[in-house]
Specification:
single chain, alpha/beta, Nucleotidyltransferase, domain 5, 5-stranded mixed sheet, 10 helices, 10 strands, about 40% helix, about 20% strand, binds magnesium ion, binds fe (iii) ion, protease
């Protein structure tokens, strides 16, 4: 089954072609990071307009790359929410337009479910059940994934997301958004223990996180340091930050695995691209006989492939696609993954 995946919930326009037997066939992405940089954050109206500009050329690009025509498509998958309303409307209008024109199903996917299932695009794929660590720009959550569509939130951040903490740390050290990769590269050259930072909630009995105090500690350390900041200081502070965040994330994952009795862990979201986090999780899981899974490095942040793969997993459970009742055009700017039918 050939599925066209479309993602347009925030500042990335992602389009992909995914074959349920062969996997990802073609992928195209445009990120608006440069455009929003001028304003210090994502400007919703500009984001919507840019999705409008990019989406059709990206669609043509994946079709051409894959050597496919619209008639080859069996279904369209699109991010239905959560996200920016105007941005979601662009992807969904295109998806439903194609669905109507070709008389094929359109499947609305929850953006976080897309992240959660993005490791289905890796060579080594997880099977249910598993514990999931979702670490992205907007979320830091630990979930128990019992089956497709059966997600229980075990803990989440009480304030900032892990990705946000990476971005703020990068900013304090003079690097622009997205700061994760820059902080990771600096940390590689830093000396462990040269600077000490707090590890918020690491000993708390629950599975919640808090990163705003860590962010403040980073800012205070920078404030006290003579300017201009030396390269050695930047490296060491980045090292201290990465060690603190990874310690907390790894500790909470192990707690969740113990609590639920699961033997598989899946990391997902932009921060799961982080080299140090991957190494620490891999080592901790290896010692406990737990299997750990990651999305492909380039598919951790937003993309159309994860949306198509999530739809592929759902469609595999439906025997006759033609009889699938279409949900109809809708977007959900706010949408709970754990309780998807609750409206707010
Ligand atoms: P959400 O999915 O929660 O709505 P989002 O889609 O904006 O948020 P993602 O695209 O999944 O988030 O992730 C973006 C975040 O990932 C940014 O904060 C970025 O700094 C971080 N990130 C990307 N690469 C790395 C890396 N190598 N190390 C650490 N952080 C990283
Ligand atoms: Mg983004
Ligand atoms: Fe995302």
């Amino acid at each position: 089954m050939l599925i066209l995946g479309i993602e347009s919930s925030c500042d990335e326009t992602g389009v992909a072609l995914y074959d349920t037997d062969k996997g990802l066939i073609a992928d195209a992405l445009h990120t608006q990071i440069e455009m929003h940089r001028l304003y210090g954050g994502v400007v919703p109206e500009l984001a919507s307009r840019d999705h409008i500009r990019r989406i059709i050329p990206l669609l043509n690009e994946v079709m051409k790359k894959a050597g496919k025509t619209p008639q080859d498509l069996d279904a369209v998958a699109v991010t239905e929410g959560p996200g920016l309303a105007g941005a979601l409307l662009v992807g969904n209008s295109v998806a439903y337009g194609i669905g109507l024109a070709l008389n094929i199903s359109v499947v609305g996917i929850h953006h976080l479910e897309g992240h959660l299932l993005s490791s289905l695009l890796a060579e080594d794929k997880p099977s249910f059940p598993f514990v999931a660590l979702l670490v992205s720009g907007g979320h830091t959550q630990i979930m128990e994934v019992r089956a497709l569509g059966d997600y229980e939130l075990l803990g989440e951040t009480l304030d900032d997301a892990a990705g946000e903490a990476f971005d703020k740390t990068a900013q304090a050290l003079g690097y622009s958004y997205p700061g994760g990769p820059a902080v990771s590269a600096l940390a590689e050259k830093g000396t462990p223990g040269a600077i000490e930072l707090p590890r918020p909630l690491i000993h708390a009995p629950n599975l919640d996180f808090s990163f705003s105090g860590l962010k403040t500690a980073v800012m205070n350390t920078v404030r006290k340091e003579p300017k201009p900041l030396s390269q050695e200081f930047k490296n060491n502070l980045a090292r201290a930050f990465v060690d603190s965040v990874t310690d907390v994330l790894v500790t909470k994952c192990l707690k969740a695995l113990k609590k639920t009795g699961n033997k598989s862990l899946v990391a997902a979201g932009g921060v799961s691209a982080n080299k140090q986090l991957r190494a620490r999780l891999t080592e901790a899981c290896r010692r406990r006989g737990v299997k750990v899974f990651f999305p492909p490095q380039n598919l951790c942040t937003d993309n159309g492939a994860m949306i198509a793969a999530a739809a592929g997993a759902h469609l595999a459970e439906i025997k006759d696609l033609r009889n699938k009742k279409q949900g109809g055009f809708s977007i959900k700017p706010r949408w709970s993954l754990e309780h998807p039918n609750d409206n707010d």
